[in-house]
Amino acid sequence: MHAWPASEVPALPGKGRDLRIHDTATDGLVTLDPGPVARIYVCGITPYDATHMGHAATYNAFDLVQRVWLDTKRQVHYVQNVTDVDDPLLERATRDGHDWTELAERETALFREDMTALRMLPPQHYIGAVEAIPGIVPLVERLRDAGAAYELEGDVYFSVESDPHFGEVSRLDAEAMRLLSAERGGDPERPGKKNPLDPMLWMAAREGEPSWDGGSLGRGRPGWHIECVAIALDHLGMGFDVQGGGSDLAFPHHEMGASHAQALTGEHPFAKAYVHAGMVALDGAKMSKSKGNLVFVSKLRRDGVDPAAIRLALLSHHYRADWEWTDAVLREAVERVGRWRAAVSRPDGPSADALVEEIRAALADDLDAPSALAAVDRWAVLQEAEGGTDEGAPGLVSRAVDALLGVAL
C-alpha cells in the first residue's frame, strides 16, 4: 500500500533540541534520545468514513514529533498501518450496500488526500492489515505453541497472564480494563475465556465475512492488536522510540500490543515511550463515527477552507488536551494565517533568529504548539507595528513555520 507524497521540509540554521514528551506508561515527561534514526509507529485509520478533526489532531501531533526530530538532523523511520478489514468496516459496508474492499480503498484514498493537503509527513511504510496477514499468522502460531495463546471454538485468544508486564502501559485496574474492553471492541463476557480481558488474535471464518488461509489456525482473519504488532516488529523491531495514537488507544490497543510483542520476543519494552493525543469534541461529545458528530477535513476543504487554517486550528491546542471544535476556533485560525502571511510578505522585518529558537524550545517541551504559535504572533505584531531592517527575517520566519509547524505561508 502506498502512502501520500511528502512536502519538502525547509532546512533551518542551527540545530533543534531533543524532545521531552509525556509517556503514558510512566505518567511523566521523558527526554527521548533516539540514535541517528528515530523510530515511530502511529496507529492508522479503519477506513469506513472520512478523516475527521479528531483523526487530524492525532496525526498532527505525531507530525510535530517527526519535525522536531528532523530539526535535530536525525532521520525518521515512520510506520503507519491501515486496518482495512475489521468489524466496523464490514458493518458499514453492509449497512450502505457497498463492497467492503471498495469502501476501504475509497476512504483510504480520501485520507491520503487530506494528509497531503494538511502537509502531514508520510510514513516510509504504510501497511494494510490485509497485506500483513502472511506475517501475522506465524506470530499467532508462535504464541499458541508457546502457551501464550489458546483456542476457543476455533478462535485464538492471547492470554494476558503470559506477559508479566501486562498493565504497565495504561496503568489501569482490572475493573477499568474490563469496562473499556467491552466498550472498545473486546468481548469480556464471552464464556470459556481464561481471563475476561484476553483479546482475540485470530477470528475463525464467519459465514458471509472475508477470511484468509491461516495455516494451522484455519481460515479466518486477524485480531486488531496483533496486526500492529506484526507490522511494527517487521519494520521497526523491539524497543522503538514512540508508539503513538489517540488517548482512546492506550487501552486496550497499545496495552495488548505491547504484551503480544513482549510475549513473542521475551524483551521489554515494546516501545520506549507511549504517547497519546487528546480527543476532539463537537457539541459537547467526543467526535466519533458511531455518534456521527463529525467535522470532516475533506468537507472543510470542499467548502474552500485553507488547509493551513485547519492545521493552525489544530496547533492552537496542546496535543494532549481534550478540546472542542467550534466555528470560533476555525475563524481564529483563518485570521491568524492571514496575519502571518501579511507579516512575511514584506521585504524585511525584525530579526527572527530568536523566534526560531522560541519555536524550537516550545516544541521540544512536550510539543507545546500553542506557545510556538504565540511566539510567531508576537513577531507578526512587532512586524506590523515597527517593521525592521533584516531582509532575511520574513523568509526565515516562513521557512521555520513550514519546517517546524507544517504550515505553508
What's the short version?
Helices cover 43% and strands 15% of the residues. It has 409 residues and is an alpha/beta fold. The chain has two domains: 20-286, 3-Layer(aba) Sandwich (Rossmann fold); 305-405, Anticodon-binding domain of a subclass of class I aminoacyl-tRNA synthetases (Four Helix Bundle (Hemerythrin (Met), subunit A), Up-down Bundle), CATH 1.20.120.
Set out the fold topology.
Blueprint: E1 20-23, E2 28-31, E3 37-42, H1 53-71, E4 75-82, H2 87-96, H3 100-117, E5 125-128, H4 129-145, E6 149-152, E7 155-158, H5 174-183, E8 200-204, E9 220-222, H6 224-235, E10 240-246, H7 250-265, E11 271-277, E12 280-282, E13 285-286, H8 297-302, H9 307-315, E14 323-324, H10 327-344, H11 353-364, H12 369-385, H13 393-405
Parallel strand pairs: 3-4, 3-10, 4-5, 10-11, 12-14
Antiparallel strand pairs: 1-2, 6-7, 7-8, 8-9, 12-13
